[in-house]
Design a protein that fits this description.
By secondary structure, the chain is an alpha+beta fold. It has one domain: Immunoglobulin-like (Sandwich). It contains 4 helices and 10 strands; from the N terminus they run αββββαββββαββα. It has helices at residues 3-17, 76-81, 123-131, 157-170; strands at residues 29-33, 36-45, 52-60, 65-72, 90-95, 98-101, 104-109, 113-118, 137-142, 145-151. The strands form 2 sheets. It has a 6-stranded antiparallel beta sheet. A 4-stranded antiparallel beta sheet has the order 6-5-9-10, with helices on one face. Strand 5 and strand 6 form a beta hairpin. The longest helix is centred in the N-terminal third of the chain and has 15 residues, at 3-17. The termini are close together.
Length: 174
């Protein structure tokens, strides 16, 4: 079964438990590459512009490193700062009392221009990843800017997507 089919099946199972939300349209993209599981959601627009971005969560299966990236095409700030050594942590706010700040972060430019953040293997990543299990939205702050709240579309959807992918990677099915 394809990755996206399994994730949509998981979403359908979650929907079955709450039929009132069955009419909602879902827009997310699960993927994996080289032992890293990812799930991407549409974001708002870059602060001060009309350029849309996507928010991607990642989970490196071999060591549990959790990451987040703001993905954009044609982001001048990311292109200009891509080689900077300046540490720029990202803060994710999942709700009252549920906030986490990355250990590292910065800008990069390549296929996408992006702001990236990593929590590092261990307790920091474990805590950040666990916050996804109850999250329906997340507010993103990076480099002194507020990127607004991103709709994660269903409570726990991002966590389920990454967890199921990690199980497939561990079992050698991906």
């Amino acid at each position: 079964m394809r990755t996206s089919t399994r994730i949509f099946a998981a979403a359908a199972a979650l929907l079955a438990a709450t039929p009132a939300v069955a009419q909602k349209q879902y827009n997310f993209e699960p993927s994996s590459r080289n032992g890293i599981c990812m799930v991407t959601f549409p974001g708002r627009t870059l602060p001060g512009s009309d350029t849309p971005y996507q928010l991607q969560f990642s989970y490196r299966v071999r060591d549990g490193n959790f990451g987040a990236s703001i993905l954009v095409n044609g982001w001048e700030k990311a292109q200009a700062e891509a080689n900077s050594e300046t540490k720029r942590p990202m803060t994710l706010i999942f709700g009252p009392g549920k906030e986490t700040t990355s250990r590292s972060g910065g800008y990069s430019s390549g296929f996408n221009d992006q702001a990236w953040a990593g929590w590092g293997a261990g307790a920091g990543s474990d805590a950040a990843f666990a916050m996804l299990s109850g999250a329906e939205s997340v507010r993103v702050k990076f480099d002194g800017q507020d990127f607004g709240a991103v709709d994660l579309q269903m409570k726990g959807l991002a966590h389920v997507s990454l967890s199921q992918c990690a199980e497939r990677v561990r079992s050698g099915k991906e």
